């Protein structure tokens, strides 16, 4: 068959091209920041945003076959992440407004797939909530003496992020109304949110004085990988979406 007759002829290659551009942007930020060294200034924040600007451009201009509504949600989620990157990059105190921005982003990410959820993995939910309680007690509760608002924001953000992991893992294990269990798109989504969860846990530990070896490298590598994988998950889910019986 001719290339134009193939289903989704350019979607994955275009995503791969965006992935290469994204990787180059991450590498350039690594170079500009002297190996992910925090500077807390506008130039650092700008270069930190460039990888997500690549993904936003891909989603807005091409989308890999993803429906317009889903592309809009992805673009908003990525833009919120970009805003979070910026405010966290210009000042250490930016972690609270950054959490608000990322929380908004995660809500829009969830809008792209949570309506398809059929079953919840409650043992995983209980385990993550227990872990959050430990991290919250050690890292966030002491901040209560300084700012009640910061504790409330970080707690709400923690629940939102945890929800993304629970829903993504539940769909991967049990399937959804749109995809069978274990499908590639669900796998990429779960991995993306798991890396996001890992990145933010290391971030809050490092921010509150718990030293983690190579913390900044782990935070940023897992974070950038997570953002790319979430876009890849959306493209993969759309590519492998089962055709309706009526079609």
Provide a count of the helices. Answer: 8
Coarse shape? globular
The percent of residues in helical segments reads: over 70%
Radius of gyration from the CA trace?
A: 18 Å
- Which spans of ≥5 residues are poorly predicted at pLDDT below 50? 1-6
- By secondary-structure content and strand pairing, the structural class works out as mainly alpha
Instruction: Give the amount of beta strand, in percent.
Output: under 5%
Mean pLDDT: 91
Order of SSEs, N→C?
A: HHHHHHHH
By DSSP, the count of extended strands is 0
Main beta sheet, described? none
- Roughly how many Å apart are the termini? 21 Å
Question: Can you describe this structure?
Answer:
The protein is 72% helix and 0% strand. It contains eight helices and no strands. The chain starts with 10 loop residues before the first helix and ends in an 8-residue tail after the last helix. The relative contact order is 0.12. This is lysoplasmalogenase.
Q: What would the keywords be for this entry?
A:
lysoplasmalogenase, mainly alpha, 72% helix
Layout of strands and helices, then pairs:
Layout: H1 11-32, H2 42-61, H3 68-90, H4 95-111, H5 122-140, H6 148-174, H7 184-207, H8 215-239
Helix pairs in contact: 1-2, 1-8, 2-3, 2-8, 3-4, 4-6, 5-6, 6-7, 7-8
Please summarize what this structure is.
With 247 residues, the protein is an all-alpha fold. It has helices at residues 11-32, 42-61, 68-90, 95-111, 122-140, 148-174, 184-207, 215-239.
